[in-house]
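Cross-check.
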Amino acid sequence: MTKNYSIAKSRRLRSTPYTSRIEKQGVTAYTVYNHMLLPAAFGSVEDSYHHLKKDVQVWDVAAERQVEISGKDSAKLVQLMTCRDLSKSKVGRCYYCPIIDENGNLVNDPVILKLNDDRWWISIADSDVIFFAKGLASGNNFDVKITEPNVDIIAIQGPKSFSLMEKVFGKKILDLKFFGFEYFDFKGIRHLIARSGWSKQGGFEVYVENTQSGLNLYDHLFEVGEEFNVKPGCPNLIERIESGLLSYGNDFDNNDNPFECGFEKYVNLESDITFLGKDKLKMIKSNGISKRLMGVQIDKENISLSSSVEIKNHNNDIIGDLRSACYSPHFKKVIGIAMINEPNCKTSTKGTIKIDDKSYSVSVCELPFI
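Predicted model, tokenized:
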């Protein structure tokens, strides 16, 4: 039986401006993300999954921190960190950019916002990118300033997010293209709003710099969103796994490279840009990879996963490890994301997995599931 323990709050583990709101709204679990509280559940994860897919939710994702890089050499530093070619990047756009170390392995997989030619926000997953950036800047004597700005994101996600945001900000917000951002006024305060978010159900992220205005906006979304059945929510484990949305620290980490994680289209080796680990990635591409993230289906009706679990073949050889998993109402079985070893990275691969001293059959499949 799995026991639940409370998280002891301290100065090292920051709350968010919205914490008092979400605790009144019934948050039932937290996780820790970038040394900050991130809501993990409001009651049943499955109920929240169904609601997210048909209505609209407001998420406290302030733990999605920003690393701001500004100054004369800011573009050089940002490019040095990522294997994606940003030489033709445009102001007002978001870019999904794997961050790479000197070995070609992944440090983070953030969304990078180009605010202007000399100012960027790196909207990070769960690792300390700010220290990585500071080290590179110092070692290369770059003329940059690197800070964590006071930005606390609210995400509005789900198919009815468009109607809710139109009601608050007007029709113009519907003109935003995916991964585009603009500034919108809320009661006299400008907010940067991007059409983005960690779900495939559509939505927006509000990069709140004015805390009081952000709290007012948070409350207002619930005040005017009743007709759209708005509820508090958070990144949903079931929805994100079904959609193949990868999680740094869960599905992959600094032991994995972008080719193993399906990020090939973000690796620009032919361009003349300079980035860390470029030669290593060329070598990896030439030699081929020995493992790859794949989907798996498991003939089981529930699962609670807190660490990787080995997947074996009929000869009892390890063919991979399960890294994230959940019960899927859509498939009516457990699905997961696993790192599978070659030559088993094909949909005909079968295996077994042992959970709580019982063995279950595993079928390998492609990502995303839906």
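The first strand starts at residue 29 and ends at 33. Residues 26 and 139 are 47 Å apart (CA to CA). Passed to J.P. for a second look.
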